[in-house]
Design goal:
Shape: elongated
Number of strands: 24
Helix content: 40-55%
Low-confidence stretches: none
Mean pLDDT: 92
Structural class: alpha+beta
CATH architecture of the largest domain: 3-Layer(aba) Sandwich
Distance between the termini: 60 Å
Number of helices: 25
Radius of gyration: 30 Å
């Protein structure tokens, strides 16, 4: 049986979820899971808390708690917020569960036995006072690349450079503030370089169906060449390895699996626990993870792309019988009011805070819809409180809610709160509607853009009827097309267009006039509107589940539960059935409160002020930002020149830095650059580059650097020099 397995990146259990998290990996996955269930597919949606690693221990120390207290606090808070936000996980797991530890150890043992791991002795900082090796985040110092004095042990937050922690200048332990010593320790590395060819073929096979932002990151990493990667760390919080067969207990003492390694395995352990809890047999997880009939979709943010497209697939492939992701529809980042989310600057909207201020079902649906329409699918996008208000008032209320409310009100006044019965010439209207859908399927399934129902198709269907049926059919087909390409925002733009067409239909049919001159015709119109309310309740169900349930309750139809599928059963294909009339004639109808109350300005102004700015300050800030755009004169302060590398050599003791002698016109200079992991010294000699020629000299690794070369850098740390395409171009030329 064909199955659809969906995972969302496991949120880290050391903080509360904010709206940026939701729009990246969770809301799009939930919408896709609900949509797939409505399409009659067998769906399993797995997520859970990522509860190991150094960040947990640091949070625990800052808050004066144990790591277990930290993960319990945030796991249950985030799980509760997810549930209130209507995330339809079939199971929400934890990587601290014993079942997960067992599985992660089994993977490690398999890799060890099959020679996928290499044991290496290496130098690492050691805090003599705390008597512990220091993981990267437990060390701060001066960046060897840019001189930033708050650099972390493995990466500089100022310039983005990656390096070995022992390359830090003036390192300090964040535990004791002491200068650490350097001691040898043993770690295990996964031989990812042995999967280079396999991963190149895997990524190439998805060149036509994966997002470009995903493909570009993958190709960048593969071009640089994969290297072995450490999968153990010297900390005491995580999956220990000292009891794994084949591992030297003395060397393994005090070591755990690196969090990036065991976290992705949480998808599998979560499925095992789900299978045990709901199917009575944990081995039934193989129906999903080892079944070639399973389509696996991994929803993530862009900061997790490499882990899910290269590293995790290599881990699964090496086991031999696990399926690989069919698609990894990664999203970019969501900003807040034009700026990046930052809890340290109080520039954030945590989900638990939103739920405190907006606990009503309709507000949660409005937030889901607003985030949907701002999903950062191809580029970073922005959430603003004004847009939240506008989406609620101008779309959910004015389009969808207005159509439903006016339909129910008219039926209340004229049809005794029942779906109208069709009489006279309109008694066969449902049959003619269905025939029109089949006509569209038979003639335009492969070219929906030119679809139409001819004027002479039926004597019963009016022009407005034909236009509405065509709009419904087209919107459903188009939405399916976009969902298959993970263009979720575009998909539901088409669904909202169906609501727009329904409103237009009500207006053009003018039942308030026809009820007097032709009651049978007015009955046909309102019968059609009732059908559209039901169909829209199905089509909008993945996005606004609370409101969808209310719409179905109003029509006296049992709510179609698509929230989860804990026993693995499938539903009918309700999505395609929404092209047809589904509500029986004479069916009683209930009163409906306003679906989406209008959001007043004062409500939004209060939320903006909670971010730390008043309305007047916000306007002034926007004005200042506009005025803060640099002028051409500002740009010219930076002197960019063409240069040529005439000598290049490694710097002793540094894995990242190269010392370059460059020619800039008639002048020779020395530049120290952190590019050793991307370029060999010998291959740089003779290359034309671009440098900043008026940068103040600085000292890096005891070497004077008299400039900076220009390079392009991806968000995952990959680097490429900016090189003039004319190799004969003279040095010293202005770049402008």
């Amino acid at each position: 049986m064909k199955r659809t397995l969906i995972t969302s990146a496991l949120p880290y259990a050391n903080g509360y979820l904010h709206l940026g998290h939701l729009s990246g990996a969770y809301l799009p996955a939930d919408i896709y899971a609900r949509y797939s269930r409505l399409n009659g597919k067998s769906v399993l949606y797995i997520c859970g808390s990522d509860e190991h690693g150094v960040a947990i221990t640091i949070s625990a120390e800052k808050e004066g708690k144990t790591p277990q207290e930290i993960i319990d606090q945030y796991h249950f808070a985030n799980k509760d917020a997810f549930e209130k936000f209507q995330m339809s996980f079939d199971f929400y797991s934890r990587t601290s569960y014993p079942e997960h530890h067992k599985l992660a150890k089994e993977f490690f043992a398999f890799y060890l036995q099959n020679n996928n791991l290499i044991e290496k002795e290496e130098a690492q900082f050691y805090d003599e006072k705390a008597k512990m090796f220091l993981p990267d985040r437990y060390v701060e110092g001066t960046c060897p690349n840019c001189g930033y004095d708050k650099a972390r042990g493995d990466q500089c937050d100022n310039c983005g450079a990656y390096y070995n922690q022992t390359e830090l200048i003036n390192p300090k332990s964040i535990i004791t503030n002491e200068t650490p010593s350097i001691k040898l320790t043993t770690h295990w590395y996964f031989k990812f370089q042995e999967f280079q060819e396999f991963l190149e073929n895997y990524i190439s096979s998805h060149s036509d169906d994966w997002k470009q932002n995903v493909l570009q990151q993958c190709r960048s990493w593969l071009r640089q060449g994969l290297a072995e990667r450490a999968i153990t760390r010297d900390i005491n919080w995580g999956v220990s390895i000292d009891d794994i067969p084949g591992v030297d207990k003395e060397k393994a003492a005090g070591k755990v699996l690196y969090v990036w390694f065991d976290a992705v395995l949480g998808y599998i352990s979560g499925t095992q626990i789900w299978a045990r809890n709901y199917l009575g047999d944990e081995n039934r997880f193989i129906d999903w993870w080892k079944n070639p009939e399973t389509d696996y979709y991994a929803f993530i943010g862009k900061d997790n792309i490499i882990f899910h497209t290269l590293i995790f697939p290599a881990m699964l492939h090496s086991r031999g019988d696990y399926i690989l992701p069919k698609n990894v529809p990664a999203n970019e980042f969501l900003n807040l009011e034009g700026q990046k989310f930052s809890k340290s600057r109080n520039w954030s909207i945590d989900l638990i805070d939103f739920l405190k201020d907006f606990p009503d079902d309709y507000s949660i649906d409005a937030l889901r819809y607003t985030l949907l329409m701002n999903l950062p699918e191809t580029h970073d996008s922005d959430f603003t409180w004004r847009d939240f208000q506008l989406r609620n008032n101008s779309e959910l209320a004015a389009i969808l809610g207005n159509f439903i409310n006016r339909t129910i009100l008219f039926i209340s006044k004229n049809f005794n709160m029942h779906t109208p019965n069709l009489t006279g010439k309109y008694s066969d209207f449902p049959k003619e509607w269905s025939s029109a859908v089949h006509y569209l399927d038979d003639n335009f399934a492969y070219n929906i853009e030119v679809a139409s129902i001819p004027d002479n198709f039926s004597e019963i269907l009016s022009e407005n009827d034909r236009l509405l049926i065509k709009s419904l059919w087209y919107g459903i087909k188009k939405s399916q097309y976009f969902m298959n390409k993970f263009r979720i925002k575009d998909s539901f733009f088409e669904i909202m267009n169906i609501a727009r067409a329904s409103n237009k239909y009500f207006n053009d049919e003018a039942p308030w006039k026809m009820i007097k001159s032709d009651p049978d015709y007015a009955a046909k119109t309102l019968y059609t509107c009732v059908q559209m309310i039901y169909n829209l309740s199905i089509l909008f169900a993945p996005v606004i589940p609370f409101s969808s349930a209310k719409m179905q309750a109003t029509l006296n139809i049992q709510h179609i539960e698509i929230g989860n599928n804990t026993n693995g059963e499938t539903l009918e294909n309700y999505w395609d059935k929404a092209m047809f009339p589904n509500i029986p004639q004479g069916n009683p109808i209930n009163q409906l409160d306003v679906l989406f109350p209008m959001i007043e300005d004062k409500v939004i102004e209060k939320q903006i002020e909670k971010l730390g700015i008043t309305i007047s300050q916000k306007k002034e800030t926007q004005k200042s930002e506009a005025e803060g755009l640099i002028s051409i004169d500002d740009f010219h302060k930076v002197q960019l020149r063409t240069a040529k590398i005439i000598k290049a050599e490694k710097i002793a003791g540094s894995e990242k830095l190269l010392k370059l002698q460059v020619e800039i016109g008639s002048e020779h200079r020395q530049i120290v650059a952190g590019i050793a992991k991307f370029y060999e010294a010998d291959e740089l000699i003779g290359k034309n580059i671009v440098v900043v020629a008026n940068l103040k000299p600085t000292k890096l690794f005891n070497q004077i650097s008299e400039g900076m070369l220009l390079a392009a850098k991806t968000s995952d740390g990959k680097l490429s020099l900016i090189i003039p395409d004319d190799t004969s171009f003279p040095t010293g030329a202005d770049v402008s």
